[in-house]
C-alpha cells in the first residue's frame, strides 16, 4: 500500500488468508503476519491496504516479497495506484481493504479486515505455495 506523502510501496507475502464473512454487503477476511512486522505496523497506522492474490505467472513477484527488502517507489515497479490503493497488474484477485481489528495475544498478529472492493481475473490461474515450491491452482 502507498505512503501518501512519499508514494512508497511496502509489501510482503502472507501465508494465511481466510474469508470470514462472504456476504456481498459485508465481506471480511483475516490474515496473519509476524508480530511487529514492518507491513503490519504500516497497516496499523494507515488502516487501508490492498491484498493482491498473485497469478500463476507471478512467482518471481512472490519470491521478491517473501524476502526482507526496502520499500519501492511506485514509479519503479509493476504497481499501479487505483483509488488510493496499490495494485499489482495482472493478479488473479485484488482486494482493497480497511483494517477492523488486530488480535495480538498470539505468537503472531491476526488482522481482521473489511473488503471494500475487489476484482477477479477469471482468465488467470492462482499462484500457490506448497512443499516449498510455487505452482498453479487449477479449478475445474
Protein architecture, described:
The chain has helices at 38-46, 59-65; strands spanning 8-9, 17-21, 28-34, 48-53, 72-73, 79-82, 85-88, 93-103, 108-120, 126-130, 133-137. It is mainly beta. The strands form four sheets. Strands 2-3-9-8-4 form a five-stranded antiparallel beta sheet, covered by helices on one side. Strand 6 (79-82) and strand 7 form a beta hairpin.
Characteristic terms for this protein:
single chain, 140 residues, mainly beta, 5-stranded antiparallel beta sheet, two-stranded antiparallel sheet, 2 helices, 11 strands, 46% strand, disordered N terminus
Topology as a string of helices (H) and strands (E): EEEHEHEEEEEEE
Main sheet strand line-up: 2-3-9-8-4
Helix content: 10-25%
| Classification by helices and strands | mainly beta
The Cα radius of gyration reads: 15 Å
Distance between the termini: 33 Å
Main sheet: strands, sense, barrel: 5 strands, antiparallel
Overall geometric form: globular
Strand content: over 45%
Low-pLDDT segments: 1-5
The count of DSSP E runs of length 2 or more, i.e. the number of strands, is 11
Mean pLDDT rating: 86
How many distinct helices? 2
Amino acid at each position: 500500500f502507498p505512503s501518501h506523502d512519499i508514494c512508497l510501496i511496502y509489501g510482503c507475502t502472507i501465508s494465511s488468508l481466510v474469508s470470514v464473512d462472504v456476504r456481498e454487503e459485508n465481506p471480511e477476511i483475516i490474515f496473519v503476519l509476524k508480530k511487529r512486522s514492518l507491513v503490519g505496523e504500516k497497516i496499523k497506522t494507515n488502516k487501508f491496504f490492498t491484498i493482491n492474490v498473485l497469478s500463476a505467472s507471478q512467482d518471481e513477484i512472490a519470491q521478491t516479497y517473501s524476502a526482507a527488502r526496502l520499500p519501492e517507489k511506485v514509479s519503479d515497479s509493476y504497481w499501479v495506484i487505483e483509488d488510493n490503493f496499490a495494485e499489482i497488474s495482472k493478479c488473479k484477485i485484488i482486494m482493497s481493504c480497511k483494517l477492523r481489528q488486530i488480535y495480538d495475544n498470539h505468537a503472531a498478529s491476526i488482522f481482521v479486515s473489511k473488503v471494500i472492493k475487489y476484482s477477479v481475473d477469471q482468465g488467470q490461474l492462482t499462484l500457490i505455495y506448497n512443499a516449498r515450491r510455487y505452482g498453479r491452482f487449477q479449478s475445474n
